[in-house]
Design brief:
This protein has 7 helices and 3 strands. It has about 170 residues and is mostly helical. The chain has a 3-stranded antiparallel sheet with strand order 1-2-3. Helix 1 runs antiparallel to helix 4. About 25% of the residues are buried. The model has no long low-confidence stretch (mean pLDDT about 85).
Length: about 170
């Protein structure tokens, strides 16, 4: 008489991992609550203004978040496919590894774009204000470095944070 023998992860592990994946997001950008030392605005609010511009503030758009993520879209897609495969194997630890890898790559791409400084040039008055404060950089988006350094990724499960990137 022959019997059926189960090996490896069971169906329950696979169901749990795929459920976790379906309720998980990888968010890239600036956490909303980080208040700046030198401003009444948070880095997230400043980022929105920098990305989209503000005619009222005479601030041209300097897109960096969306183009930064789009620049590594192929790699991100590969990591997300690997995360799905890991979930189908019932391996949540591996699944979260691939999600984190996608978030890290996107974050580094955004920072690289900011560092490159290939945006609409700063106005002469802005450069003069920077020089008056002892700043030498004339690159847009990089004055103190606080905004660039606040770029990160967060893995969220439902409404609760699972992991915050360290870049």
């Amino acid at each position: 008489m022959s019997g059926v023998k189960a090996t490896g992860l069971g169906l329950l592990d696979i169901l749990e991992a795929t459920k976790a994946l379906s309720q998980t997001d990888v968010l890239v950008g600036v956490p909303h609550g980080e208040q700046r030392e030198d401003s009444d605005m948070t880095n997230a609010q400043i980022g929105y203004l920098l990305e989209n511009g503000s005619p009222a503030m005479n601030l041209p758009p300097r897109p960096h978040l969306v183009p930064g993520v789009e620049a590594v879209q192929d790699f991100i897609s590969q990591q997300l496919f690997k995360a799905v495969d890991s979930a189908l194997e019932g391996n949540q630890k591996k699944m979260y590894f691939y999600l984190g890898s996608a978030g890290m790559k996107a974050t580094m791409s955004v920072k690289r774009l900011i560092n490159a400084g290939d945006f609409t040039a700063l106005a002469p008055l802005t450069i003069a204000h920077r020089k008056a404060r002892g700043r030498t950089s004339i690159k847009p988006l990089v004055d103190t470095g606080q905004y660039r350094n606040s770029q990160t990724y967060v893995i969220m499960h439902k409404d609760e944070e699972v992991e915050r990137g360290k870049t």
